[in-house]
Design a protein that fits this description.
334 residues; alpha+beta; 6-stranded mixed beta barrel; 20 strands
Length: 334
């Protein structure tokens, strides 16, 4: 006679499937949490590294009594896109850059933008370049190039939809994509951030990385002292507003006035400086955005610019500098 009250041994198929499903869910949550933690650690590491570099550049400006630049250029190290920090100071004076007669920008700049004073910088001797962690990138707000009056009802603006427009750097990855700028920040003789080079009364600066006296761009070498100026062809940075509407056109048109974009590692474009820097995780950005929509075209440049600005608005970590204490602060610390 069978004792039906005896305890049943083992599990049913449904019970086993339920356990497997629960373990799978826990595994996914664990992986997502781990990935998020790694991304936070990477961002924090980059932020602290940049804070240290800001302090180093400011200290050099104070000690030398010379305007000092901290710039970040795109590199490709072991087939991996990286950003390299360089500290530089003026060398050899400034030159009035002139838009080449052969240049044919889609939008003709006004006279005061066809000629701009630019200072040559050299990396500070004895200060080694520093590579930021993989995925870490730096952007600046577009203050240096915002709101020029182009006349005829056409204006350029720093803002879109009420938010700051950020200028992202170039990314030297496997896919051909629209180029970006070389971001940086300038410290004056008193250690305070400045928007130009007071010693030379210049608005912009470029770094002569190889020290040959020539500005490298688009695979060529240009001697500013001899009046040989690089063309800005293919550098799409400034978004145009629809005249009278105060809104951006659906397909943004870009001016090609100034040589401010980096196409490859050897380029020496003008450094776009701002009042603060933003650190963000490019790897995370590229995992959620349609990078294939960023080809080196006008529309691709617009897509890339807006995607970066949206992401930076939400996830970027903004670093400001207290001119009185010399302490780098995040926006939440101000």
């Amino acid at each position: 006679m069978v004792n039906r009250s005896a305890s049943r041994l083992g599990f049913t198929l449904i019970e086993l499937l339920a356990v497997v499903a629960i373990l799978a869910i826990v595994g996914v949550i664990t992986v997502v949490s781990y990935t998020s933690i790694i991304a936070d650690v990477r961002r924090t590491s980059a932020v602290e590294q940049v804070k240290g570099l800001l302090g180093q550049a400011r200290t050099l400006a104070l000690k030398s009594g010379t305007t000092t630049m901290l710039a970040f250029r795109a590199r490709r190290i072991n087939n991996t896109p990286r950003m390299e920090a360089i500290i530089a100071q003026p060398a050899g004076g400034a030159k009035d850059w002139q838009l080449p007669d052969t240049a044919t920008p889609e939008i003709e700049p006004p006279g005061h933008m066809r000629q701009v004073r630019v200072t040559r910088f050299l990396p500070v001797e004895g200060v080694d370049p520093v590579l930021l962690p993989p995925g870490a990138e730096i952007a600046v707000p577009g203050h240096a190039i915002s709101n020029p009056d182009t006349g005829g009802g056409q204006t350029f603006s720093l803002e879109y939809s009420g938010d700051i427009q950020y200028l992202p750097p170039s990314h030297l990855g496997d896919l051909a994509e629209a180029n970006g700028i070389m971001p940086g920040i300038l410290f004056g003789r008193d250690g305070a951030p400045v928007t130009g080079v007071p010693e030379h009364q210049s608005r912009f600066g470029w770094i002569d990385f190889d020290g040959d006296g020539y500005q490298g761009l688009h695979g060529g070498e240009y001697s500013l002292l001899d009046g040989d100026f690089p063309d800005a062809a293919g550098c799409f940075v400034l978004p145009r507003l629809t005249p009278g509407s105060g809104a951006f056109a659906p397909i943004v048109e870009y001016a090609e006035w100034w040589p401010m974009c980096q196409d490859d590692e050897l380029d020496e474009p003008w450094v776009m400086t701002g009042p603060f820097l933003v650190v963000y995780d490019s790897s995370e950005l590229r995992s959620i955005e349609a990078v294939q929509d960023w080809p080196p075209t006008h529309e691709g440049s617009a897509n890339r610019s807006w995607a970066h600005t949206r992401f930076i608005d939400d996830y970027g970590r903004r670093l400001f500098f207290n001119r009185y204490t010399g302490v780098s602060l995040e926006e939440s610390d101000r």
